[in-house]
Amino acid sequence: MRIFDPHIHMTSRTTDDYEAMYAAGVRAVVEPSFWLGQPRTSVDSFTDYFDALLGWEPYRAAQFGIRHHCTIALNPKEANDPRCAGVLDVLPRYLAKDRVVAVGEIGYDSMTPEEDKALARQLELAVEHDLPVLVHTPHRDKAVGTRRTLDVVRESGIPPERVLVDHLNELTVTMVADSGCWMGFSIYPHTKMSEDRMVRILQEHGTERMLVNSAADWGRSDPLKTRRTADAMLAAGFDDDTVDQVMWRNPVEFYEQSGRLDLDDAGPDGTALFEGNSIKRGGE
């Protein structure tokens, strides 16, 4: 089984996690830039973080045979801090980097005017840099926030097939499906979505444009939730090809729109892991 986790914050995880992920079949990840838990107080703290996502973290992942890409953005929560507004001015420098496969996470946290401005500007940057977009839906008032997000996306003119709307649930999946955007689901131990709920959504809505992620970070989370969801799909009667579509081919198809997704890499022992989009070694 091959797994591509399209949304995981490995900066917050240990090398033990990388080792366990590889053993579970994870061969590629995308790490979106996000709020680190402690408020950042200057633009320079963001640039140091972005540099780590582009340099140190891909190196660390490669030691365990996992290909690492990232998305870059000013996250919604910190868009409200005037000390961080200058991040929008340095983003073009980072959005030109090879390992950046989308603008994100962008979207809403508290749905403030400052978040409106940051979201609209970063959608403009995505169009200017010909990149797809990863959108964070708010934890509070999720249905209202998701509807408002979709309105802003439509107004921006970015094609919906280049937009991934994440952290969805049963209340928001239909509106995003109808919009033409991609649908992302974060599987968590006690919040957001569970494996069983995810399986029921796939049974009801199908597997097209569906992405499953662990969104594992510094909080109570599990970087193996993608594998656990894949196993739950198999137990519910989905076949191997359908599981591969959700866990590998869908994230590949979405992030390939950046023109920067590179899955040809070498593992720790120097042998090739990938040939095109197929795992060559160690994928079972």
UniProtKB/TrEMBL annotation:
Keyword presence, Metal-binding: yes
Transmembrane found in the keyword field: no
UniProt-listed Pfam families: TatD_DNase
Signal peptide from the UniProt entry: none
Entry's Gene Ontology molecular function annotations: hydrolase activity
Superkingdom of the source species: Bacteria
Record-linked SUPFAM superfamilies: Metallo-dependent hydrolases
Gene3D superfamilies noted in UniProt: Metal-dependent hydrolases
UniProt keyword list: Hydrolase, Metal-binding
Similarity comment: family membership: Belongs to the metallo-dependent hydrolases superfamily.
Listed name of the protein: TatD family hydrolase
Annotated source species: Streptomyces camelliae
